[in-house]
Design a protein that fits this description.
Oligomer: single chain
Shape: globular
Number of strands: 0
CATH architecture of the largest domain: Orthogonal Bundle
Largest sheet: none
Distance between the termini: 60 Å
Helix content: over 70%
């Protein structure tokens, strides 16, 4: 039962919480202290996020049992008693918030906001047209803000704006993937608990593409800021990241439109070979821009 409970908590999804380390990385503050505070925020987010996954499973039981792949989840398949889930959810929330309390008032404030927003999403907002994607973008960006709150490293407003739009794009890709999968099974149908129908597919694809391109534009404005020019020895190298991101967004939306993207685009990015190579290219460009390779 313990293994099934761990599976229901979806620890593979904790990789998303690595976003809390971005303020430390972008601020070039590679110290044990900033790493420790970032790790604290990561653990806090992971516990609360797992509580949310359990809450989602408990509230979506009917839809999950009818879903071609989600019916194997521990609660939907009946391998875990519902009573255990109702006890685990508040326990995980409490443990996550207790860890955040160690990080100070700013971090606990961000975590409380995340807990409230994500609970509202699970119980209501995920069924509200367009609002669900906006909330997803905000929830991802809150991870970055949590890292900033834990370390005291304030992220640029340009970067936070970029974060909102890139995760809005990924949220739209997630909905697009759901619609493509559904269209192959039941044309003109609507996903259970969602406000979209298969007829919305081209519009959702357009939304994902537009938001992704706006994110790239915001990234270029961030790269051209005085803050970045002061932080990097070769800031012009960062322009290459914009090109990589432009390629990746375009390719991901096209693949989603063809039904070749997992319903979670973040997991797709981690398992897709081209996405991993794109991520490696971004990391190399970042390091070269930071150290000024080849410059005296």
């Amino acid at each position: 039962m313990a293994l099934e409970a761990l599976r229901a908590m979806r620890p593979h999804q904790w990789v998303k919480n690595l976003l809390v380390f971005l303020p430390m990385i972008l601020g070039h503050s590679f110290t044990f202290a900033t790493f420790g505070w970032s790790l604290l925020a990561f653990l806090s987010f992971s516990l609360i996020a797992s509580g949310v996954y359990l809450l989602n499973d408990l509230t979506d039981l009917g839809a999950d049992r009818r879903h071609p792949s989600k019916h194997t989840r521990p609660f939907a398949a009946g391998r875990l008693p519902l009573a255990l889930g109702t006890r685990l959810v508040p326990a995980l929330f409490a443990a996550g918030l207790a860890l955040a309390l160690v990080g100070g008032g700013m971090l606990i404030g961000v975590m409380l906001l995340y807990a409230i927003a994500t609970t509202a999403y699970s119980l209501w907002l995920k069924g509200v047209l367009a609002a669900d994607i906006i909330v997803l973008a905000v929830l991802y960006t809150l991870r970055i803000i949590a890292g900033a709150a834990a370390t005291g490293i304030a992220p640029s407003i340009w970067f936070l704006s970029f974060s909102i739009f890139i995760f809005f794009a990924l949220g739209a890709v997630k909905r697009l993937s759901e619609l493509v999968d559904l269209e192959t099974e039941a044309p003109h149908a609507q996903p259970a608990g969602r406000a979209y129908s298969t007829e919305d597919r081209p519009v959702v694809a357009m939304i994902a593409t537009t938001a992704g391109f706006i994110a790239v534009l915001l990234l270029t404005l961030y790269i051209d800021s005085s803050e970045v020019r002061a932080q990097y020895r070769a800031p012009q190298i960062l322009w290459g990241i914009s090109l990589v991101l432009l390629f990746w967004i375009s390719r991901t939306v096209l693949l989603a439109h063809r039904g070749a993207v997992d319903q979670d685009p973040v997991i797709f990015a981690l398992t897709d070979r081209v996405s991993r190579w794109s991520g490696l290219a971004v990391a190399i460009l970042f390091i070269v821009a930071m150290v000024g390779f080849g410059e005296g």
